[in-house]
Amino acid sequence: MVGFGRYLVHVQSVPSARRQGGLLGAFIALAALMAAALVALALPSVGAAQTGTPGQFDFIDNDPTAGTTPINRATPPGGVQSENPGVFSIEVTSAGTVHVPDAAFCVDMDIGMSTGLLYDVLVQSPADTPELSTSDYQSIAWLLSQARTLIDNAADPGLEAGALQLAVWMNAPNEADRTDPVQGAANPALEARAIELYNLSQGKSLTPLAISASPGSATVPSTVALNLTGTPGTSADLSVTSGSGTLGATSVTFDASGQASTTLESSVVGSVAVQATTKYGEIRRVVADPNRPDGTPEAQGTVYLVPTEASTVVSFTQAPPPPPPPPPPPSGGTSGTPVTPVTPSGPSSNVCLRPNIRVQVMGTRRTRAGNSYKYKVKVTNRSRRNVAEMVSVRIQVPRGYSVVRRPRGSRISGGNVIVPLRNIGPGRMRMTMVTLRADRDTAGRSAVRAFVSAKCSRRRAGTLRIRTSPLVQRVSPAVTG
Q1: How far, CA to CA in Å, does 335 sit from each of 246, 253, 329, 332, 385?
Q2: Which in 122, 154, 321, 354 has the greatest CB count within 10 A?
Q3: At 453, which helix (H) or strand (E)?
Q4: Distances in Å between the alpha carbon of 207 and those of 167, 213, 458?
Q5: Cα–Cα distance list, 369 to 201, 318, 405, 472 (Å)
Q6: pLDDT tens sequence across 323-357
């Protein structure tokens, strides 16, 4: 039994000489082992690459909010390897920058990892490692960009996370059989979903983030359109980095064609710079640093995505002065025929205009008993015209948690924090926050849920699944005489 990170490898012995027919059978078995070893040495290893930027890699754990699907994979010659494929939680530090991606996967099935260690690695990008620009790795990058959405929306998150890892292995060169990725495991549902995801990823790649304004200049006060392109199904955050302007939305999601849009409004003369950022920007791969000190552990090849940015500048100018008023009519002239004012027709005041509300819960997914954590609820009115009126947020406190701090003007009712947000304009967003403490005896899985109601709108809900680790009790050693 050999340790494989969080996995165990069971290696069966070579069949005995008696079963193989005496000395001849033993010789054949030994030759087969030597040939397999030579083939393994001849295969290129992810860790053998020499390109990349030095850094450190921390394998935190398999993401507990997603879970895993255990399998027993057949390995030559006649062995069985127990694995728990799923999505990784990692932290990578390189060139003074720390990345904590929301999804990462293994691309090296031959090296195991353990938690609680810092690995010396090289961080590779398409610029220094051409292999990452190939169609195989572009398919892997696309799977990474969709992983969190697929897992969150899956009926069985653990199976979906395991299938995604298998699909990544199927795309990675020399890692998994593309028609039988599990190789012997009795889990047809996992294998079928992995093959489905692999086929879905073929020909896919990340769409570079871009943003433009239409028109590029306008007179004040004006509202211009901001048009963005990116990878379908992902999102981008927007911010005004210089100048004075108001964004219609601070976050957009790209549709099936990779398009998204919002607005920029300004009443101040000058240039306004807008920056868009997506965390699904470009693929990275970490491999073991070949120049690491002797005796230090070897990292497993792992892939993830890093953020990229794009920006545009809109010029707002002063409108030309209005034309002078017409001269008065000549003396003694007629003033013309009086005109009867007409009241314009419009929608009935009894019509209720429905807003388009979206709610998100953000905060720490992995907690520990006895500690306090902040959770934010973001409410966005995605309607282009309709105001969300009488908006109210109900935050459901998880069992085993208590409220430490809540917004001014809120109230607690039946284990819920009720926060009135009043009205939210078209394309605008409001944020509220609570601080919750995990009781000292709390442990296990739960969720922070937020429900939003508004006039003329159906109730909307957002959920953040959390996992609470038990409190570690320190026990003093017994004193003996």
Answers
A1: 46, 58, 7, 9, 41
A2: 122
A3: strand 444-454
A4: 20, 19, 34
A5: 40, 58, 17, 9
A6: 778 887 776 545 555 545 554 454 444 577 888 99
